[in-house]
Every structure is written in C-alpha cells, then in structure tokens.
C-alpha cells in the first residue's frame, strides 16, 4: 500500500532529523507549511529552546501578496529576528517538504536577510 502524503512527509522528516540537529552555535531553521500559511522557527535542540519565530500570520507579513511572496517575507523576518538574537548561521530543516515553491522562497528570503546556510 502506498504512503499517504502525510505519512510520506513524516518519513522524510524523520530521515532528515537524524542528521540535522540545532546547537547553540548553529541552531536549526525549521519550516512548517500548511495549506494557507507558512511558519519558521530557529531552534536550539540541545537546550530545547526556540530562539526566534515568524509566520505569515504575523500582522506585518499577512498582507504580502500571494503565498510565495509571503514566504519570502517570513524568511526575511526570521533572519532579522535571528540576527537580533545573535544567530548568523543555521542548519536548514525543510521538514520533509520539497525544496520548491514556498519553502524555496522562504530559504531565499532568509539568505537575503543575512542568514547563512
């Protein structure tokens, strides 16, 4: 029997998380994409702390055109918040989603904002 979309994504997500771990020096930038919105967090997995978070539901980002443009704005916002917290290098965790469309736009926005990965 074939995997459903959710089961396939969770299988990929577990495989990715075996190798990507956020530390204090290089936290993990994780992405969650719903049908309507996109969310990003910078996480230190060793301490179990969220350093910065941004989403397309934030008031200043919510009015940014289509979903791909909103994802780029979320990337820039997370880069700005992370740099205020003293983070400039992260490990990118795409969360089992393909590096395409909104996920790619968020990553490029974060790179434009100054994050290195």
From TrEMBL:
InterPro entries: Ribosomal_L18, Ribosomal_uL18_bac-type, Ribosomal_uL18_bac/plant/anim
Family annotation (Gene3D superfamilies): 3.30.420.100
Single GO cellular component term: ribosome
Species this protein is from: Gangjinia marincola
Annotated family: Belongs to the universal ribosomal protein uL18 family.
Superkingdom of origin organism: Bacteria
The protein's name in its UniProt record: Large ribosomal subunit protein uL18
Subunit: Part of the 50S ribosomal subunit; part of the 5S rRNA/L5/L18/L25 subcomplex. Contacts the 5S and 23S rRNAs.
Transmembrane feature ranges: none
Keywords of this entry: Ribonucleoprotein, Ribosomal protein, RNA-binding, rRNA-binding
Function statement: This is one of the proteins that bind and probably mediate the attachment of the 5S RNA into the large ribosomal subunit, where it forms part of the central protuberance.
Keyword hit for Ribosomal protein: yes
């Amino acid at each position: 029997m074939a995997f459903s979309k959710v089961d396939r994504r969770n299988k990929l997500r577990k495989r990715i998380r075996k190798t990507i771990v956020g530390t204090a020096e290089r936290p993990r930038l994780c992405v969650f994409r719903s049908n309507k919105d996109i969310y990003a967090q910078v996480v230190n997995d060793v301490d179990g702390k969220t350093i910065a978070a941004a989403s397309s539901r934030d008031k200043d980002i919510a009015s940014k055109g289509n979903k791909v443009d909103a994802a780029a704005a979320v990337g820039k916002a997370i880069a700005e918040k992370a740099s205020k917290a003293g983070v400039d290098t992260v490990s990118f965790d795409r969360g089992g989603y393909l590096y395409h469309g909104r996920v790619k736009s968020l990553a490029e926005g974060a790179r434009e904002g100054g994050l290195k990965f």
